[in-house]
């Protein structure tokens, strides 16, 4: 086991129809991380697209993974990658959209429940533990009476798209800081005063 290697999974749905949806913000963050590492995604036998790189010249090695499955079936690919790369749950970082956090905010935690997020539910079931790190990218609650399921499968609104690059940068920074300095340091930077 390499204690300087991390598996970073960005949740979303496959295909161009979903690429700009709020539900795919985890995969958008992985694209940002791959750009920073000058890494290209390639097909992996665990039913995922994988890119490998480092955070800085001598920083931790990141295995960036985007499951090819739909969000609700993310567990199989994640479990396959955990086994293939021999990554313990403590070194798994899942980047996902979060309705209960305001848009343009990033929060980090280890463990906990799935909070109704079907991608997290499937990962917890497949790997047998909830004790992995999460980078929770705030997308806010739907307006009015719009069902949450419809809201997450819609593209970001035009006003949100103006701010989105900054949000993706913050979330990518959070992943890198988690891998380099740990959860406490990352939380201190991104959780600001309550």
Describe the protein in words:
The chain has 194 residues and is α/β, with parallel strands linked by helices. The protein has one domain: Peptidyl-tRNA hydrolase (Rossmann fold, 3-Layer(aba) Sandwich), CATH 3.40.50.1470. It has six helices and seven strands. It has a seven-stranded mixed beta sheet, sandwiched between helices. A hairpin with a 3-residue loop joins strand 2 and strand 3. The chain is globular. The N and C termini lie far apart (37 Å).
What layout of secondary structure does this protein have?
Blueprint: E1 5-10, H1 25-36, E2 42-44, E3 48-54, E4 61-67, H2 75-85, E5 92-98, E6 106-110, H3 118-127, E7 133-138, H4 148-152, H5 158-181, H6 183-190
Parallel strand pairs: 1-4, 1-5, 5-7
Antiparallel strand pairs: 2-3, 3-4, 6-7
Helix pairs in contact: 1-5, 2-3, 5-6
Q: CATH fold name, please?
A: Rossmann fold
How many structural units, i.e. domains? 1
| Text of the CATH class | Alpha Beta
Question: How many E-type strands?
Answer: 7
Percentage of β-strand residues? 15-25%
Count the helices. How many?
6
Structural class: alpha/beta
* Mean pLDDT reading: 94
Order of helices and strands: EHEEEHEEHEHHH
For the biggest sheet, the summary is: 7 strands, mixed
Report low-confidence residues grouped into runs of 5 or more: none
State the end-to-end CA separation: 37 Å
Please tell me how large the radius of gyration is: 15 Å
Estimate the helix proportion, in percent: 25-40%
Q: In one word, what is the shape?
A: globular
- The CATH architecture category equals 3-Layer(aba) Sandwich
Strand order of the largest sheet: 2-3-4-1-5-7-6
CATH superfamily: Peptidyl-tRNA hydrolase
